[in-house]
Structure formats: structure tokens, C-alpha cells
Amino acid sequence: MALSASPSVEQMIRDINKDGFCVLKDAAKGQAAQEFETKKTPITTAEGLDFCRAHGFDPRITGIVESIFDWSRLGMFSALYPFPGCAHNFRVDRSGLKGLMVQIWSRGSKAVYYKGSHRLPLQPAKAHDGMFEIPHEQLNKGSDPVVVDLEEGGLVVLDLRLAFTAFRGYAVLFVFAVQELIDHWGKIRLPHSPELENKVAEIDGISEKIGTNFTFER
Hints:
218 residues, alpha+beta, six-stranded mixed beta sheet, three-stranded antiparallel beta sheet, 33% strand
């Protein structure tokens, strides 16, 4: 897989289907993620939802998600910090591609993605961060580690079944999945606010094929 600065949506989809992930180097994304982390912006604020709209629903992202799924929802919106000592993935069910993780990486980030691991019969253990920890010996047979060095930042889109290790930096995560998976996840809870309700409505209106999983607490 070529680490291009500007691959087409079609090429990114081919990379996901073949290798389990795709990479887009993008300094603007890197700067946005850097500022988001520096300001410690809560995802439950207007600023957090503005970031979600601008970056989670970037036309390149929605183009990929819409092409792969007939219908999906944004099921998770959170942060990712380094865990250099182990590999993780988000889903162990091998029944097919049912979800994508979008990682918006800050400048100076580095991660390893285990190409082809989404097709392996992995046996991970539950990890403390909600993902699954995968022993490296399971990845040594049938997958190829690809080092992705995002000095200026960028984004990575991966099959939820793909194993990866975050070595350095910070990422904002967006997870899009089919309803079958969403039904097993909790809602993304937001404080009740007309401003936030309007922002969620704007996000919901971006795509006819992608919904959200927000709920408002009164």
C-alpha cells in the first residue's frame, strides 16, 4: 500500500478492502487534531461537535463510508493516546466488514498497522480501554507490520478488525458501523442544549446514508 499524500477515495477503499486500512497524510488534519488536544476540547461541547462535522464527516470520509455500507451510524467519538507496548483492535467477530474507525492524527504521530490482520483468526483479550489486546505472536503469522509516520499529521481509516499499535502522538477517533453493531453500544451522551441539538441535526443532515448515535440528557 502506497502512503500517498492525496489518494483518491476509490484508492482508499481498495486499500481498506485489501489491506484493512488506508492512509491520508494531511497537515491541516494534523493541525486540527493538535489544537483539539492542546485545548482539551470536550467532545460534548459545541466545539467538539464542530470538530466532528468538519473532520469526522469530511467528504472524503463520508465518501468511503457511503461506498462501503448501505447504512451506518457514527457510533463512537473519542480520543486515542499511545500504547506502544501492545497491539489492539476494536472487533473480533470475523463475519465481515461491519465497521470503520477513522483516526485523525496530530502532528508528530506514529503508529504501526498490521496489514492483513483483519482476516486472521485472532484470539485477543479484553483491554482496559474498551478495545482488544492482541499478543504479537499471533500477528507474526499472516500479517505485515506497516509503520506509518505522520510528522505533519493526517488520517487513517481502518477496518475495526485490523490490529494496530499507537506509538506516538494523539488521535481523535470516529467509529462508523452498521446497526447490528450499534445496537450493542451505548449512546454518545450530550447535555441538553438547543445549540447542541441544532448542531447534531446539521450533522445528521450531511448524508442520507450515515446517521449518528447521540442522545441528550435532561
